Amino acid sequence: MKFQNIIEIKAPVTEVFEFVADMRNTPKWNYFVTKVIQENGNGPAPGARYHQTRQTDNQRYEITHYEQGQIVTIQTLPGSSLVFKRQLRFESIPGGTRLIDQMSLRTRYPEVLERLTVSRIRKAVGENLGKLKELLENGHTQLQDGRIINIIQKRSI
């Protein structure tokens, strides 16, 4: 199943890209992800591998495509409980950044259940992107699980 979410963030594209491309920041804006550890590589780059722990499962994935300031694509490695490919595209727009988040995933559920699950996942991804927007625009957010996240902003707009 495939879906897409688009969000506009009032922050420079370089700032948004640097924050999002560093997969270790994911728990700061995605409440369902509790920890991301970089297994190899030095920072985000093609071939960098990560282990992601979520509330109910975990995945290992790697960056398969990387264009500084523009695109990051990640894909799960064999053995992950959820199989996905996610492309994050960053576009500079007046006053900020447009983030286009495209995902294809397989839950390994029967097709009918997968459609229902994917619908819920798409909604949750949209909510998480809203938390990312709030965090990068305001320097803080409260995640759906109650965690309060603060970051130091490097504002250049």
Characterization of the model:
The chain has about 160 residues and is an alpha+beta fold. The chain contains 2 helices and 9 strands. A 7-stranded antiparallel sheet has the order 1-7-6-5-4-3-2, with helices on one face. It has a two-stranded antiparallel sheet with strand order 8-9. The radius of gyration is 15 Å and the shape is globular.
**Class inferred from helices and paired strands:** alpha+beta
Principal-axes geometry comes out as globular
Mean pLDDT: 92
The oligomeric status of these chains comes to single chain
Report how far the terminal alpha carbons are from each other: 37 Å
Task: List unreliable stretches of 5+ residues.
Answer: none
Instruction: State Rg.
Output: 15 Å
Count of helical regions: 2
Write out the strand line-up for the largest beta sheet, numbering strands in chain order: 1-7-6-5-4-3-2
SSE sequence, one letter per element = EHEEEEEEHEE
Strand content: 35-45%
How many E strands? Answer: 9
Biggest β-sheet description:
7 strands, antiparallel
Helix content: 10-25%
